[in-house]
Amino acid sequence: MSEMRLSQRNYYGKALAELAARDPNVVVIDADLADSTKTSEFRKVAPERFIEVGIAEQNMIGVASGLAASGKTVFASTFAVFASGRCWEQIRQAVAYPKMNVKIVATHCGISVGEDGASHQALEDIAIMRALPNMTVISPADAYEAYAATIAIAEFDGPVYMRMGRSESPVVTREYTDFIIGKASVLREGEDVTLIGAGQMVSFCLEAADALLEEGIVAEVINMPTIKPLDKGTLRMSLMKTGCSVTAEEHSIIGGLGSAVADFLSREMPIPLEMIGTKDTFGESGAPDQLFVKYGLTSEDIAEAARRAVGRKKELRE
After folding, report:
1. Do the strands 168-170 and 5-7 form a parallel or antiparallel pair, or are they unpaired?
2. Rounded distance, CA 30 to CA 40, Å?
3. Which of 20, 110, 196, 270 is the most exposed place for a label (fewest CB within 10 A)?
4. What SS3 class is residue 100?
5. pLDDT in tens, 232-241
6. Number of folded domains that form the chain
């Protein structure tokens, strides 16, 4: 894993600027947060196709739906708590239900929003969006993947929700790698336990795998950037080999990646599963690193969950 840290939202802005230059059909809408979401990079290239609606997120989705109905590819961005919560009804009725070509790209997700506190730390947005029919849900692992995913969803016809963090995070993927919606990637092969991560928790999974290897536990690490649709094929192949799993996400364990994997396992291959994420709670104001520790979202928490999963697997086989 590289020691380099980059901002997902900066690379989202970079991808939008490139789309502005090469695709005249792309329109971007923001709700008074263009400098924070980095949609301002699109505005620099194509100001005539950038719409600032102000602090009116519900109207932003209505405008996005109308533009999509006229044949445009529309990106609508704001902070995740507003994108998933404040305008949920508009997303349901005007985007998901009619299958409009709107890409809702949210920044400032998860506990790492830090000092902004519980009111701005979206810990339930995956669950909210995953429940909507026709909605694709994406959580890229790092900046490079955020860039690639932005290009990919621009070429995809249909509603998409993509979440990104606020701060810089470790780079775990390669630059200029193609992003395939609905496809996971095995970053490290193993045979004892499968660690399944989304967002910046993928980097923590890799750190946990290093720690476990010192104990003789060889962990497989999967980057699962598409939460819906879930890559069941990659999961199945890995879990048939390892027999137990841990999910890790900067989101509530209710309704997120862990729930999606649990749904799959309960139907197809009931094996031990441990979930790392927030435990039915809101966050609080604090330094991101301290919040990761308090809410159990560190690489050591993942490693300990892996030990439990391996122990449960052994008990079942005895």
Report:
1. antiparallel
2. 9
3. 270
4. coil
5. 999 999 999 9
6. 2
What are the backbone dihedrals phi and psi of residue 128, each rounded to the nearest 5 degrees, phi first?
Answer: -65, -45
**Ramachandran quadrant class, 100 (left: phi over 0; alpha: psi -120 to 50; beta: rest):** beta
**What is the reported pLDDT for 59?**
97
Same domain for 95 and 25, yes or no, is yes
User: CB count, 10 Å around CB of 261?
Assistant: 25
Structure tokens belonging to residue 211: 């720690």
Angstrom distance (rounded) from CA 130 to CA 138: 10
Token pair, residue 292, equals: 């990761």
Domain that holds residue 218: 185-317
Whether residue 292 sits in one domain with residue 153:
no
- pTM equals 0.96
Q: What number of residues does the chain have?
A: 318
> Which is the catalytic residue, given 3, 18, 57, 189?
57
Same domain, yes or no: 200 and 286: yes
Run of H or E residues at 318: none
Q: Is 57 a catalytic residue?
A: yes
Residue range 103-155, pLDDT digits in tens: 999 999 999 999 999 999 999 999 999 999 999 999 999 999 999 999 999 99
